[in-house]
Design goal:
This protein has 240 residues and is of the alpha+beta class. The chain has one domain: Lipoprotein localisation LolA/LolB/LppX (outer membrane lipoprotein receptor (LolB), chain A). It is built from five helices and twelve strands. It has a twelve-stranded mixed beta sheet with strand order 7-8-9-10-11-1-2-3-4-5-6-12. The radius of gyration is 20 Å and the shape is globular.
Length: 240
Amino acid sequence: MKLFITCISLVLAANLFGQVTQGRVVFERRTNLKKVFKNDKRVSEMLNDKNKYRNEKFELHFNESGSSFKYIEPETEDDMGWMKFLTQHHTVYQDLENDQITVVMDFMGSIANMQDSSTQRTWKITDRSREFDGYKGIRAIWEMNDSTNIYAWFCPDIVPVSGPEGLNGLPGLILGLATEDGSVIYMAKEVEIMEVPNELVDAPEIKEDIYSREELIQLLIKQMGRWRKPEEIRAGFMWY
């Protein structure tokens, strides 16, 4: 009888103090357009200290089987005009059980669908940390290429291996994400523990054409190559 009571106590303790497996996170993305378009003379000439920053919100729903990352439409339209198209508003679904990512990519209203295996990255975990809405995020570094590092802050207390834009590969949910030059920064502003049904994280059935990562890159290079360099197009897939 004593052993049975002890086991029950351990189960209750695990439920009370265990890791978070389901919930919703609201992220704010801050984009420095001057840095993003520093090599695009046409766009950079239209930017100044007053309009170079763009702040947008996204929500991430997650459970143990997957996650979905979506743009939150503002309640009132801002006065940025055409400049709202300078940032990406893709919807990202991550299938954790099958290690697969699906991205519904929105190019100024034109939709393209990408589905592929999740990219494997090598992270260096550091001893630095910061807090996000009461949760501790440990900093990790991914060397994207010879000249650029990506910084991420993950929370071991939130176990699904996911994050903004479907970025993954760390032992906990990513609550903060930033490029080395600070051109793009994602920060978790709200973390809510809630039950998340699979309907919220499963990718919808896609009836239109669906491409692998490289197939879609090559298609975009062919269609947009007259006004965008191949490396610029590839840069749009940096998270995926």
